[in-house]
Amino acid sequence: MKLGERHRIAVQIRNLKSRIDEVSNRNTRYSLIKPISSITTEDERDSYLEDARNRSGSNTDESELVGFAKTKDELLKLIDVNTNDGPAKVICVVGMGGLGKTTIARKAYENKEHMKNFSCCAWITVSQSFDRKEILKQMIRQLLGADSLDKLLKEFSEKLLVQVQHLADHSVEGLKEKRYLVVLDDLWTIDAWNWIHDIAFPKINNRGSRIIITTRDAGLAGRCTSESLIYHLEPLHIDDAIHLLLAKTNIRLEDMKNDEDLGSIVTKLVKRCGYLPLAILTIGGILATKKIMGWGKFYRELPSELESNPSLEAMRRMVTLSYNHLPSHLKPCFLYLSIFPEDFEIQRGRLVDRWIAEGFVRATDGVNIEDVGNSHFNELINRSLIQPSKVSTDGVVKRCRIHDIMRDIIVSISREENFVLLTREKITVVAEESIRHLAFHGSKCSKIFLEWNHLRSVTLFGDRPVGRTPALCSPQFRMLRVLDLEDAKFKFTQNDIRNIGLLRHMKYLNFARASTIYTLPRSIGKLQCLQILNMREANISALTTEVTKLQNLRSLRCSRRSGSGYFSIIDNPKECLMITMCLPMVFSTSINFSDRVKLIPEICMSCSTRWYDTKGVRVPRGIDNLKELQILEVVDINRTSRKAIEELGELIQLRKLSVTTKGATNKKYQIFCAAIEKLSSLQSLRVDAEGFSDTGTLEWLNSIACPPPFLKTLKLNGSLADTPNWFGNLKQLVKMCLSRCGLKDGKTMEILGALPNLMVLRLYRNAYADEKMTFRRGTFPNLRCLDIYLLKQLREIRFEEGTSPTMESIEIYGCRLESGIIGIKHLPRLKIISLEYDGKVAKLDVLQEEVNTHPNHTELQMAEDRSHHDLGDCSVQKLPTSLSPCAVVSLLVLSLKGESNESMAETVLSMARSLVGSAISKAASAAANETSLLLGVEKDIWYIKDELKAMQAFLRAAEVWAEQICDLSYDIEDSLDEFKVHIESQNLFRQMVKLRERHRIAIRIHNLKSRVEEVSSRNTRYSLVKPISSSTEDDMDSYAEDIRNLSARNVDEAELVGFSDSKKRLLEMIDTNANDGPAKVICVVGMGGLGKTALSRKIFESEEDIRKNFPCNAWITVSQSFHRIELLKDMIRQLLGPISLNLLLKELQGKVVVQVHHLSEYLLEELKEKRYFVVLDDLWFLHDWNWINDIAFPKNNKMGSRIVITTRSVDLAEKCATASLVYHLDFLQMNDAITLLLRKTNKKHEDMESNKNMQNMVERIVNKCGRLPLAILTIGAVLATKHVSEWEKFYEQLPSELEINPSLEALRRMVTLGYNHLPSHLKPCFLYLSIFPEDFEIKRNRLVGRWIAEGFVRPQVGMTTKDVGESYFNELISRSMIQRSRVGIAGKIQSCRVHDIIRDITVSISRQENFVLLPMGDGSDLVQENTRHIAFHGSMSCKTGLDWSIIRSLAIFGDRPKSLAHAVCPDQLRMLRVLDLEDVTFLITQKDFDRIALLCHLKYLSIGYSSCIYSLPRSIGKLQGLQTLNMLSTYIAALPSEISKLQCLRTLRCTRVSNNNNFSINHPVKCITNTICLPKVFTPLVSRDDRAEKIAELHMATKSCWSESYGVKVPKGIGRLRDLHVLEYVDIRQTSSRAIKELGQLSKLRKLGVMTKGSTKEKCKILYAAIEKLCSLQSLYVDSEGSSSIGTFECLNSISSPPPLLRTLRLDGSLEEMPNWIEQLTHLRKFYLWRSKLKEGKTMLILGALPNLMLLHLYQNAYLGEKLVFKTGAFPNLRTLRIYELDQLREIRFEDGSSPLLEKIDIFTARLESGIFGIIHLPRLKEISLGYRSKVARLAQLEGEVRTHPNRPVLRMVEDRSDNDLADDAEGSPVEVEATDPLPEQEGESSQVIMLTTNNRDKHSSSWFYQVMISSSIGISGRPCFCGCAHLAVPRRGADLRRLPLSSIASHALDSSLSGMNCFNLTFSRDMLLVPA
User: Fold this and answer.
1) CB neighbours (10 Å) of residue 1102?
2) Segment 754-785, tens digit of pLDDT
3) Whether 1116 contacts 1549, CB under 8 Å
4) Distance between CA atoms of 1787 and 1809, rounded to whole angstroms?
5) The CATH fold of domain 69-235
6) Could you confirm whether domain 1631-1860 is CATH 3.40.50.300?
7) Which residue from 398, 759, 1226, 1606 lies 20 to 30 Å from 1200 (Cα-Cα)?
8) How is domain 720-875 classified at the CATH fold level?
């Protein structure tokens, strides 16, 4: 950089710093502004309300204002359109501003039915200060046509300056013989009217012309016309005003009638608004953002002038109030509108793009910035600050206008704030230097004193500015962001944009309709910030290559003018030749400047395009560099290179694409089709095959197989002949425009009619070439608009009953319908039929009659006289039409030669496809790096990239070749990653110095290049692969996958059809109630895939049957090859607990090597006196059973233990157990098998019954699956991705062995078929599952995180990488390739398992493909050099040679592998991406971890609960690619500052052990002793693990200052981790205030956990302020608890605006009162409260009002009330309630109408002395669980209610019944009596339950209750019984039963009047129900 320029910038920065300091000091000196809380402002609340209104608010159509229908009719009567003679009549509409004059006049002006009587029309906005010349130009342009004006201006430009008189004479002359309609809107003075009337309108015109004037001045109206032609617009009637306000605020009239207060305030508001529509709409826009309770306060803020004395100034003050109430982010957007001229129609896209370029639109996570800008636009519409002028069929506002009063206000404010400067004719502007936006209206601006280099936007409307204005691309405009010349009326030349590269900061550049520009200067590439480039209708024929450097470009519109004018060799060959010969004259003085600048671009364009007649432009190679591009128009495919066309497919964010294809080759067509298929985000596509001379073909479009799934608009222009089949896949299509296609009836209407979302159908110029167009029943379900233009062969349009139920508009132009339009009565919503010019219809009278009688009051509009449209009753003789033969599309079917070979090849192909894409991106990134030039390898890297792209296209058919490419891709990616790390980790000097490293990398890249060439040449030599289209079944499968992820309902494979009987019979065999005798062995036997494991697991997980009766449980997967030590460890861990295992291993560690007998002896000893339940799953051999039985189970255990074995061998089962205890699992019954298949394919029995072919096919498929559940599920998952019509073809591919001879190998082949049908991107994900041990529960987040780190997950537009990965996970679940294990309460699958057969398949394929290595430890591991993933199960080691340097992932399950005895991070693993140590059972030490930085490519690092790591090394900052860092239960107290360098980090979990056992200050003696004895730790007397643990504890204790928190300190700079999604757990006390504040910058954070115990109030406030900024946060955990005491949430109430998307909230600490902001958490699903000490009342009110709350946990005195009452209407979505250790709780009550979805109630350690009431009111209750130390009064009553509950819930008790029943603990205690409502009995009977409950609250005695049932038929009965026997007589009526002891109750005599019987003596005992004695 030049020193002078450097010095200038440095001085400027210093000056800015000084200005900042001065402003700050000035504020301090004068106390100008006081600091306010950033936690919540009204502005932010408004912003939140704005989002809500953008989503759900219904906009009032302000062009159809309430009460204006009558006004419109009266105005049309005054206009009197039918009187077509006499002089021009002037009609005035008069009224004060805001009454709606312009709206009424425009509705009349746009009425086609009435305006067809005028030959020309014009709308002219006059306003106060108008340009006379511009007014006349507008009138000529609109009345006589744009060509007429251009011709006039050209004529006078050659002679003299154009004056007003010239224009006036032309206008008067042109209008003499025409009938015209002119609207002069907003006329202010009589002088203006006199001038316009005298100079613009002819005096002699007796054609019945009309002039409409709108004005606010009644006196002016009286001078313009007679009183009879003045229409005085009055304010709205009060009823209409109220209706308008209610419509604007989305309130119903019924709501107002039911609420007197609301009715009163609404009436006051409309009165205060003076009944003026504009005031009502703007005020209504504010009220819509406020709650009704706040309307009264707002009413008091309104000025009262409009109510008492309506005036323009009062109206302005009222409207200004709406501006003042705008959120801050909307105010600059609104003021920006002052740039546009009065009554200007503003395009939404143009306005939003300019807002974005100016920086007014804030980026929001997860939302496209254009969508945010559109939401701002919609909000201004909702608030009535701008008015919609053009609305699309689907309701999107395309254009808007600003009311003149509104514009006056924003112009005034903009002027005051120096926001926008508007220059007008003949004025002198003195502007301050702070002006940033400049708009020229008109042509003359004399003196402008501006700091031009401060301007950010310049906009020109009209002629070229004169005076002191710099040139368009002057260096003075160097800070310009926006240059908009779209509405400039002058011709700016090529010279004007020559220096465009000087405007380096340009973001928005609009040169639309710049016909004199013929090339983009090469300096355009310097505009690196450019986002929008609009060059529509220019003479540019090709884009320069420098355009590809514009990396931020989002919109690129460049099209050339249609036709070449003077130089058209097709249209004007003679003129072209003549002008070409005379071309030198162009540069002479005889040709004026205007003609010269027009001719030069035309000749340039014609030459460069070779006179090619299309409007597209050629795009250069490298167009794929524009990754942000969303709009690209218009590409000329014919002149664009194949490479560039192929690159279009890389624009993954492209939403809108327009191309011309005329003249292109078939090869280019194929490449373009392949590119289209890749554009997954494309929403709008236009393909134009038309030239200016003739029409091209579009038949090549049939080669598209998988169109963009989200396509909403499709426009095709060209010959098709037949409708492409892929049209039927366009489920999202909203708008279709077809031109010149020549389509026929039948298939066309069938395919188009089936499109579910099609709303607009436009058929132009013989797009449809048949005589009849029939809309059949059930078709076009969403069609709103049908436009038919110039269909010459069409004779009849027919609508059948049940078609097009939403059709609103039919427009016909240039058609001759000789048979008419038939069946419009079947269109219930039809509003209008419009017959345009040359639209002729037979039987018009019949059509008119049908329109008149249509129930929807349809309107028939005719553009011409009726006679021009009526064909009469034509009887046209139909001529036979010859039909052209249909084009036959031949499909290439590859024959299957050998199933196993094809399966293997497809696997290799899938792997290669997944890898090559990653390698390409790495190559492109490396080549782009400037340092590659220093290494001299840039050319090689680009060569590799290009060659790999070519390979990628071939991979779809490759077999042998693919294996080489797969391996080569890995090597390339490794090399490029290493290259990147080498470059980024060193400065330039060190790169130059380290020649040896340079040389090594360069050599390696050169070698890779040679390998690429060799592989490519080998393919050429042997013709291995021929190129085919990239449109494959894989892409279609991918699309089907997306659909299924969105809508498919997964079968719960744990509840398989037909298994209920099997479960019941197996439980009978287990006999859980027999709790004595020796251990019993039960065997479940059956072939693989029958469901043995699924059935056994359902029983094993049963709380009621197993967990309750067996204190020790274990699930052990044996399999064929198990490790004996690992199996015993697993049994000890599950049966006796992990602590027992750890203590045993610790005890043995210092003495001997752990052997099998050590573990066996311990296990046998501990199980002697325990009742255990063990499942041995997948047992294969008898000797394995004998070994386990002898060594693991004690012989003398008589506790009734049970051992369940699942096996495939009948012989083995019979030798393990007696025949009576062997359960043979059989195949599914036919009906159950069919039901399972239908459920998996989302079909119903009704579908099958109505389709016999389908029924036959389903039966054949389940038979071929052998009625095996696993086979049915996997095959059903494949069928779910196919149409029913394709099932038969797939059926033929199924092997038939299972049907004939079921065997394990046959089942494997069947399941392998499911794998073969996986999409290519899912296959590596599926094979990756072989890493995990058999029957391992795999967590979803862990698996998806690893997939992402490995590069298996392809990014998709609009989705985070994690969301895409989770969609892969869900797809594997849907396809039954994995089985869900644990499901969250919201239905989200949390973990999965892999069936053993499926796992065998993945392991087998992975071994064959060297994808994953699983060392067996027996020396059988034959490893090839290209193995990339390794997983150790147990302490096995790999004894064969392994190249560790290419390993990408390492996972260890169990003990330390011998191969990694010294370190788990050896130097050789330098290419490692994934290191997963989460499930290790050995201790990971600090030494293991210190060298982690050597793994510089690491992306996923997870360390489990077995570690003694106490410090993250500072070198961790070198892991620049790290995405996931899990450090669970470590001794780390603080994260190093280098953690902030990990810019790619998405998950950061770091927790530490919460207590210091050896160095805790809570145990001072032990702490001092251990400290004194510390030297002993380093002696051989202490084991290695003990030494590591004590050192780690000491480090943690000292660094954390003996903090009891398990959080860690995070450093300053944490805010730089912008991609962070998960952060756990932060110790707020240890963390600095600045770092806490930075947490608010983590805008993508979804999950946050913090510890606040011991932190200051200031830090807590900073924390909660940061939390408010986390708009993406979904899970929050705040823990204020310490080990010794409970913390408080003192500052939690300071939150006022919590994260709006919060779904999970966990609070641990004292609250006492529920914070008010909790009620704002409308998305909250899970709420966990610990130790909160909440009180009754407010707590349940707030919690009960949360609409989405599904899970409520109340732990350890979270609630201090005695009663927990669920009120009517509360907790509408609650599913699970868990109550743990609520010491003061005595009663739980559910009122009628509460918690309608509650399914489960868990109670643990609670004493409910009053019981649980009202479970009858819980219709979906499934389970009540009483855990340990849970006691409930009236347990018998609860059991009775459970038994009689209609939903049959289960009452589970972990302990004996007596331990849960309070009635057994307090004999003789006082008893309370409570009478319940009568219970229904048999007819003629009535009964009542009387509850007798103790009143004793002594914690040492239990409550009792007694029920007495009084019945008129059987007397008195009681249940259940007290302990022992007793004699009881019920007291006589009137006796006080409330406080009587039992003895007193027994002493009373029964009054016979009580039941109509004599006294009864009731005797009862514990086990019998009381009956009359």
Assistant:
1) 17
2) 999 999 999 998 888 888 999 999 999 999 99
3) no
4) 7
5) Rossmann fold (3.40.50)
6) no
7) 1226
8) 3.80.10
